[in-house]
Design goal:
- This protein is globular.
- It has one domain.
- α1 links the parallel β1 and β2.
- Helices cover 33% and strands 11% of the residues.
- It is an alpha/beta fold.
Length: 81
């Protein structure tokens, strides 16, 4: 199942994270969330909360090239596992 997360629809990143179904999601669409402008801690919380059932994450249109090297490195390390 594909789940599209629009972070702007939630008051906090934790609320957005809590909305992700834990078991039935195999594809997670995080596109168009401007993750590059989010605090490092929020992005790490989001990345670390991705359910293990997810085997494809769409990060398109998030200006990842504007992310500080440390933030982008942490994200890429997670996705390489």
């Amino acid at each position: 199942m594909l789940y599209t997360l629009e972070i702007a629809n939630y008051a906090t990143m934790q609320d957005a994270i809590s909305s992700i179904p834990r078991y039935s999601v195999t594809r997670l669409d995080l596109g168009y969330n401007d993750l590059a402008s989010k605090p490092h801690a929020d992005n790490l919380a989001l990345i670390n909360s991705i359910p293990s059932s997810v085997n494809l994450v769409d990060l398109s249109y998030n200006d990842l090239g504007r992310m500080p090297d440390r933030d982008l490195g942490d994200a890429l390390r997670f996705f390489r596992q």
